[in-house]
Amino acid sequence: MSKGDTVFQVRSDGISAEGVRDQYADGKAAKVWEIFIGDKKSRTENYRNFLVEKLRENGVRRILDVACGTGVDSIMLVEEGFEVVSIDASDKMLKYALKERWNRRKEANFDNWVIEEANWLTLYDDIQHLLNGGFDAVMCLGNSFAHLLDNYGDQREQIQAIRNFERCVKPGGLLLIDHRNYDNIMNTGATPAKCIYYNSSHTTDIKTSVLYIASKPALVTLDYQISTGKGEVSEFRLSYYPHKLQVFEEILRSIFRDTPSHETYGDFKPLDRVTHPAFYIHVIKKASV
């Protein structure tokens, strides 16, 4: 893949003048994203018990979902009785969450559900009015964090974003963050179309491309083809930064210093129970004061 490839043209300005780009700004991916997700009940059952149990055993009540998207995970947590603040950089994705909140506004939990646009690189300052001493948990799931690309070659913006996440977690609280198994993607050159998050019954194909700069993987581009029914096929392209597990864990440890607990799971299972997980999930606790 050369620098002239259109992979370098997916960084639309979106709603952010700078910082995190909105790759969903043209509306194509957002329009069919819930088709790609598949049955929501099946999707959430894949990890509802894990997530809810992990949150409740740590006394979590108030959650910041920094990658709300169309609202699937936030809706699940609101239904479970958590107080949820949801943000996303994509107004095209958020409109689906806003529609669900409006449709269920007569339910107290949904009427109190806070949804806003925000930029990870300025997150702490942007949501000062919502902090109230910090959140019991901050979550960034669904491979969302990998949308933040490495524009300088040293991951400074990824580190800045995670520091903002950490600042939003109150002492003793949790950060839950995940990423695809990019180690395996780079080894095999393929990306599974179905996994713990995406289980659509529609025909789905994902073409995987990896861009190397100075012999280092710098960008993974996924070209999605999703059959939307009646012979129609929707195509869109998304680009991700290929996080390596060991490096990502080191970054988390450097930011969450003196953490009493840092657990890594594969597809929401202990790592010794899954050989090649599609996703790695990190659950890290912030040290108490």
Automatic annotation (TrEMBL):
InterPro entries on file: Gly/Sar_N_MeTrfase, Methyltranfer_dom, SAM-dependent_MTases_sf
Pfam family, one: Methyltransf_31
UniProt keyword terms in alphabetical order: Cytoplasm, Folate-binding, Methyltransferase, Phosphoprotein, S-adenosyl-L-methionine, Transferase
Catalytic reaction equation(s): glycine + S-adenosyl-L-methionine = sarcosine + S-adenosyl-L-homocysteine + H(+)
Enzyme class at the top of the EC tree: transferase
GO CC term, one of those recorded: cytosol
Residues where S-adenosyl-L-methionine binds: Y24, W33, R43, A67, D88, N119, W120, L141
UniProt-listed GO biological process terms: methylation; one-carbon metabolic process; protein homotetramerization; regulation of gluconeogenesis; S-adenosylhomocysteine metabolic process; S-adenosylmethionine metabolic process; sarcosine metabolic process
Enzyme Commission number: 2.1.1.20
Methyltransferase domain boundaries: 62-183
Location(s), subcellular: Cytoplasm
Record has RNA-binding as a keyword: no
Superkingdom as given in the UniProt entry: Eukaryota
Entry's Gene Ontology molecular function annotations: folic acid binding; glycine binding; glycine N-methyltransferase activity; identical protein binding; S-adenosyl-L-methionine binding
Keyword Disulfide bond: no
Subunit: Homotetramer.
Record-stated family: Belongs to the class I-like SAM-binding methyltransferase superfamily. Glycine N-methyltransferase family.
Protein name stated in the entry: Glycine N-methyltransferase
Species, as recorded: Anopheles darlingi
